[in-house]
Amino acid sequence: MGKRSVENDSIAIMKTNLLQKNIPKGWQIKKIKDLLDFEQPTKYIVESSSYTPDGKTPVLTANKSFVLGYTNETDGIYTDTPAIIFDDFTTDSKYVDFSFKVKSSAIKILKNRDEDTDLKFVYEIMKSFNFPIANHKRHYISQYQELEIVIPSKKEQKKIADILSSIDSEINKIENLINTDEKLKIGLMQDFFNRKNWDFKKIDDVATVLTGGTPRTSTKEFWDGDINWMSSGEVNLRRVKNTEKKITQKGLDGSNATLLPTGTVMVALAGQGKTRGKVAILEIETTCNQSLAGIIANKESIHNEFLFYNLEYRYQELRNVSGGEGRAGLNLKLIKNFKVPVPPIETQKKISNTLASIDNRMNKNNLLKDKLVKLKKGLTSDLLSGKVRTINN
User: Fold this and answer.
1) Among residues 36, 32, 35, which one has the least CA distance to residue 109?
2) Which of 319, 290, 279 is nearest to 231 (CA)?
3) Cα atoms in the 13 Å half-sphere on the side-chain side of 328
4) CA distances from residue 158 to 116, 126, 154, 171, 199 in whole angstroms, order as listed
């Protein structure tokens, strides 16, 4: 084992030991291996990865995707649930209370060793770990099961697990609502923007296209002003309400940039990753750097929100006209010549309002989800350390 690995191991042990200061009365220090038994997944590995939507048994991974698909295989189904599945490489884990099969030999299946251990409580502790992982190394036997934790009585374990699980349940409900709205939006966009009976016009015929510029970076009086200045990375915000950097009036005058009005549709011209071709819409006035184009809609011809949603839907088309992948880039000429549908303006507004209402609902649910995630993080720290008790001391 190299020096770096030893240091990482020490960090992991040290982090779990932080929980051991001021241990509440009646709590005990235990290692993961004192609480959980593990089983290798060999006899539960799916034989074929040709999954079927109407399969009876889910095939699981411990990583983010969780359910990879479904199978109708009848042999080697794990039924002794609940259990924890653990990815030996990533240390990701999932609590499972239904029968399943797995795909990877890297999965460990974990069960509580005795009736004094609440499996879901241990799972919540495992999720709270910040465990440093090594490249393609199996961790459970050599390191992970040796981690020390502090645990209360079985009664308090269960109460803690129930509290944290209830928050997880609310988070899952909200995530399902968000996912449902995302699918609804995609379906509506496919219906709206694949109509063949609309007229198509070049963007240059229905809007003004401008790009920006960067003030001289060495000139201090150009920066830290009160004029918004947008960079290409900020298109990921989709609706831009603020910018990270600000410039002064001197900075604006000292560049090729123009102050763009609220409602301008922004397109990223450059970016080797997924940035190029992404769009956003301004909810503020801002200027921008030269890696962005601002499209100011002619209100009599095209509704700016309709243009925004149409270009969002046609992201890959925008990337393709720029020459594909790698170091390819968009430019003003390509943007101006890009054709967009121009149905009657009232139709455009109805479509925009429909899609915007779904976006607003998703934004509210995302904010609620973020609040619940923060709440759970704080409660997890307090409950698992004994700072907040669920039973009388």
Assistant:
1) 36
2) 290
3) 14
4) 10, 15, 6, 20, 63
- Give the pLDDT of residue 133: 81
d(CA 333, CA 79): 61
279-282 and 239-240 as β-strands: parallel, antiparallel, unpaired?
A: parallel
Q: Which long-range contacts (CB under 8 A, 24 or more apart) does 361-369 make?
A: 361/177, 361/181, 362/178, 362/181, 362/182, 362/185, 365/174, 365/177, 365/178, 365/181, 366/178, 368/174, 369/171, 369/174, 369/175, 369/178
Tokens of 99: 């029968």
List residues bridging with 94 in a β-sheet.
85
* pLDDT confidence bin for 137, thresholds 50/70/90: confident
Q: Which of 232, 198, 325, 227 is nearest to 273 (CA)?
A: 325
By C-alpha distance, which of 186, 272, 182 is closest to 233?
272
Residue 263: left if φ>0, alpha if ψ -120 to 50, beta else—which one?
left
Contact 383, 390 (CB under 8 A): yes
User: Residue 26: which region, alpha, beta or left (left: phi > 0; alpha: psi -120 to 50)?
Assistant: left
Angle between helices 119-128 and 154-193 (to 10 degrees): 60
CB-count exposure of residue 281 (10 Å: 0-12, 13-18, 19+)? buried
Distance CA 240, CA 282 (A): 5
Reading the block at residue 199, the tokens are: 């007229």
3 pLDDT band, cuts 50/70/90, is very low
Give the model confidence (pLDDT) of 358-384 as tens digits: 999 999 999 999 999 999 999 999 999
pLDDT in tens, 311-355: 999 999 998 887 655 556 899 999 999 999 999 999 999 999 999
Specify the 3-state DSSP secondary structure of 61.
coil
Could you tell me where the DSSP H helices lie in 24-151?
Answer: 32-35, 119-128
